[in-house]
Amino acid sequence: MWKLCCTAFGVAVLAAPGVAHAQHAPLVVELKASHGYSVGTVTFRETMGGKLNIHIELINMPPGKHAVHIHENPVCDAPDFKTSGAHFNPDGRQHGTENPLGHHRGDLPENIFVDDSRTGEASITVDYLSVVKDAPDSILGTSIIIHELADDMKTDPTGNSGNRIACGVITEPALQP
Ligand SMILES: [Cu+2]
Fold first, then answer.
1. How many CA atoms lie within 13 A of 95 on its CB side?
2. Confidence bin at 29 (pLDDT 50/70/90)
3. How far apart are the CA of 87 and the centre of ligand 1, in A?
4. What pLDDT does 133 receive?
5. Does 9 score more than 50 pLDDT?
6. pLDDT tens track for 127-162
7. What does the pLDDT look like over 69-125, one tens digit per residue?
8. Which residues pair with 175 in a beta bridge?
9. CA of 118 to the centre of ligand 1 (A)
10. Cα–ligand 1 centroid distance for 3 (angstroms)
11. Burial class (CB in 10 A: 0-12, 13-18, 19+), 32
């Protein structure tokens, strides 16, 4: 059975116990824009090889390329989402997957493209993040942010990605009421 539950923040989480060969159930986080309405979801899946797949689906978003980052605080206060803090950066590095002094663990190597129908989809797999509780690279207790502009992948500290336009809190399903 699929189980849908919602937190006080309105974050929906789908838990699918017993999925064949999956060690952990996928974690689904709802994204909300500055106006407070849902603009899509992010599904985090641990892969067989110990990596993390981040699948993002956006609706009703401005066309163009947008940066996607993991930010340090599990907070999404509209409209500017500033309380989500800086990029998740436990290693004290600079910004950008193409920066020799980088990168933040919260940086992702791709932007998401939103087309003229205002929808977008991206599937990004990285080996430096996890949604497993207590893992050293766990991002449970952080947030995921979509920015207004593309990430140039090298300019510290934000990749020139502009304002924060959507946000979702990444929390452990077991802690959700
Ligand atoms: Cu960011």
1. 19
2. very high
3. 6
4. 87
5. no
6. 999 999 889 899 999 999 999 999 999 999 999 999
7. 999 999 999 999 999 999 999 999 999 999 999 899 999 999 999 999 999 999 999
8. none
9. 20
10. 30
11. buried
CB 169 within 8 A of CB 75: yes
Expressed in angstroms and rounded, the spacing between residue 113 Cα and the centre of ligand 1 is 16
Distance, CA 12 to ligand 1 centroid (Å)? 22
CA distance 20 to 50: 16
**23 compared with 34, residue with greater pLDDT:** 34
Could you write out the DSSP letters of every residue in 62-126?
Answer: -SEEE-EEEESSS---TTT-GGG-SB--TT--BS-TT-TTB--TTB-S--EEE-TTS-EEEEEEE
CATH superfamily, region 3-175 = Superoxide dismutase, copper/zinc binding domain (2.60.40.200)
The alpha carbon of 16 and the centre of ligand 1 are apart by a number of angstroms equal to 29
- Cα of 174 vs centre of ligand 1, distance in Å, is 26
Give the predicted TM-score (pTM) of the model: 0.85
Domain boundaries of the chain, sorted by first residue? 3-175
For the cut 70, the answer to whether the pLDDT of residue 14 exceeds it is no
Report how far ligand 1's centroid is from the alpha carbon of 106 (Å).
Answer: 8
* 2 Cα to the center of ligand 1, angstroms: 31
* Dist. CA 168 → ligand 1 center (Å): 12
